[in-house]
Design brief:
By secondary structure, this protein is mostly helical. It has a domain at 12-46. It is 53% helix and 0% strand. The chain has helices at 12-23, 27-45.
């Protein structure tokens, strides 16, 4: 399998649909992939919103 990383931009609904499809596959084949997707999504969804730049419009 190719180890080159690819970055995709998908909505939360699209990710959930992808996970739903993976859930119908044999666990032993997809558990690692599901874990990576959940880990990366969780890291992005739990980010604190950035503070506004000082001196910006209010």
């Amino acid at each position: 399998m190719d180890k080159q990383a690819i970055n995709l931009q998908l909505s939360a609904d699209e990710i959930n649909l992808l996970l739903e499809g993976l859930g119908s596959m044999p666990f032993v084949k997809v558990y690692g992939l599901i874990g990576k997707i959940q880990e990366q999504a969780s890291g992005q969804l739990n980010k604190a919103p950035e503070s506004p730049v000082a001196g910006g419009e209010e």
